Each structure stands twice: as C-alpha cells, then as structure tokens.
Amino acid sequence: MPDWNYCLTARRARTGSTNPIAPKASPAATPSPCTACTPQQNHTALVAPNIAESNKVLCHTLLQIRQLATKMSSLTEKVVATLSEEIRRGALRPGDRIPTEVAMMKQLSVSRSVVREAISRLQAANIVETRHGIGTFVLAPAAEKPMQLAAADLSSMLDVMAIIEFRIDVEAAAAALAASRRTEQHLKQIRAALARFESELERGSTDTLAHDIEFHLQIARASGNRYFFDVLSQLGRSVSPRTRLGSAEIAELDQIEVLRNVLGEHLLIYRAIERQDADDARAAMRMHLSNSRERLRRAHELTKVGA
Fold first, then answer.
1. Which pTM was predicted?
2. 195: closest CA among 217, 179, 182, 214?
3. Rounded CA gap, 183 and 2, in Å?
C-alpha cells in the first residue's frame, strides 16, 4: 500500500498541486529585454529559450539591415554631392561623360550599388543621362523661364496686397535665418545698402527704391538659402509697394517722412540681424512689411476720398 501522505507531499513540492492528476506546472514565461537592441529600439522577448533566441537573431538581423541602409544612404549622398559640385564649378560640363562606375568606386571608396543609386538620383533630377553602352553624360541645364510679374498681373489693389502678404511670410523667415547664419561680409553688404538709402534722404532725395530693394536682397542672401534670394530677385521691382503708387497717390503722401519711417524700420531689422537675434529679426521684418501694406492701403484710400 503506498504512503499517500508522502506521495501528496512530494507532488506538492514538485508541481505545486496536491491533485494527483494535475499536469506538472510550467514555469511562467517572464519578459526580459532583448540584448541585441539598443535602448531606443528595445523590444520584450520571452525567456523561453527557443522564442528568446529567435527574437534576438531576428532583431539583430533587422538592426544590421537598418544600419547598412543608413550607411548606404550617407555614401550615396556623398557621391551625389561630389558629382554635383564638379558640375557646378565647371569641372564637368554639359556633354561631358562622368567617370565610370569603377573609377568612382575607387576614387570615393564606395560600392557599385552606391554609385548606381547616386547616378539614379542625378538622372531623376535631370542632371545626367545614361546612354546604354556608351556611358553617363552631363545634361545642359533646362532653360528656365524666370518668374516675373507684369503690370497686368498687378492691376488691382487686391493683387498688390496679396503680393505684400506673400512677402511678409517669406521675408520674415529669411530675416530670421539671416540673423542665425550671417557672416561679417553679409552684414557689411546689408549695412552698405542701408547707408546708401540714408544718404539719399540726407540729400533730400526720394530716389531710394534701388537701395530699398538691395537691402531686402542682401538679407535674403544672408539667409544661406539661395531660394529666398532667387525668388526675390525674380520678382524684382514689381513687388515694391512704391512702384504701384500712381503720381496722384504719391502726391497725397509726405514722401520724405514715409521714407524716414522705412529707414527706421530697416534699421531695426539690421540691428536684430547684427546681434544674431532670429526672433527679433523675424518680428522686425514682419512689422516693416505690414506697415508697408498699411501705407499702401492708406495712400489708396486718400486718393479715393479726393476723387
């Protein structure tokens, strides 16, 4: 006859249960971190050996793939930048064949797949074209039609106001970037435009438009983003509120007084850029162009009243 007390005691120690037909309890799977991950990428793996090990292998593989993709993208950008710079400075001209894949692999210490990806990006940007069996050649830049605003495009006051609204956001951003990125040379050019504007006023002249436009262009240049400069250059004189005022409207204004206000606003912008205060530069440019819009509206209203 078996000793049931002994059997039950032994079973409790072994399974945690006194039920003679209960299955043996399995240890609960507890979460543990995956050692193949970085803290930012960590996931929870089960300690069950087969699952945990499988997860670790999978995670490590995915991590390697991600790192390889990042490295390839960086190397591709390096090849694109190198070829683009050679084209920009004229070392490679339109019609020239770029170096072969093998030559670029050796020169830049990259793989063939990196070179091919870089060429694909340049092809997508219409900078080069590949002629099968011959090579890859630099394309001539496409003829671009500059963005221009004819007088007919600004036939109403609403059109002019819309252009000023456009300038408010664009030039406020350019001024903020200029404050952050300007060099001493940039500052010198902005100051020179400001000084020429002031010099005209001191002589009693209102011929300041060219200096006004130059002031804004130099700030756009100092932003370090060529698109600000390109857009303002292409818009040209047509975006200045003063070019949109007729002789009757001008007669209603004290031009010298208005230009003194403009000069003061320019000075606030310049000082913010000089001390590299991006927030103040943005606010000063926004205030200046908003004031320009208000001056234009007021002059227009005066002529309507006098009509």
1. 0.52
2. 214
3. 96
